[in-house]
């Protein structure tokens, strides 16, 4: 690698991270399917529970009334666009490349769910006695953290090295 190249700007390294993240996501979802009861909270700590449910849409069940093929097509387009952005981003943009890598991994994990099951398997629930956050999964976390890294890169990334 040349000077200024970040590890996740190298296609092989980014590909390995994506494959490892997708495998981890899918193994956890297989375990959730096998061992976690449906729609029954299993407390982990006071504000965190495991809660298996299915999401027919995208994040926060948006577009859940849309056709399965539309949702799958949209996920494929998102992976393609983010891959295109990853390729066009200068190699010195560490946070952006890490973010794009995580977004791709999360999108592929949820895309596999859509293709195999027809829905996304969600299982993480943050809650209190009077409030609960949307149920999500590891792939959703990858997407969220990745988006945060891309935003961070835009805020603090070095524009002079581009």
TrEMBL record:
Annotated InterPro entries: Peptidase_A8 (IPR001872)
Any Pfam family: Peptidase_A8
Enzyme Commission number(s) of this protein: 3.4.23.36
Compartments (UniProt record): Cell membrane
Keyword hit for Membrane: yes
Superkingdom to which the source organism belongs: Bacteria
Entry similarity comment: Belongs to the peptidase A8 family.
Matching NCBIfam families: lspA (TIGR00077)
Protein name (database record): Lipoprotein signal peptidase
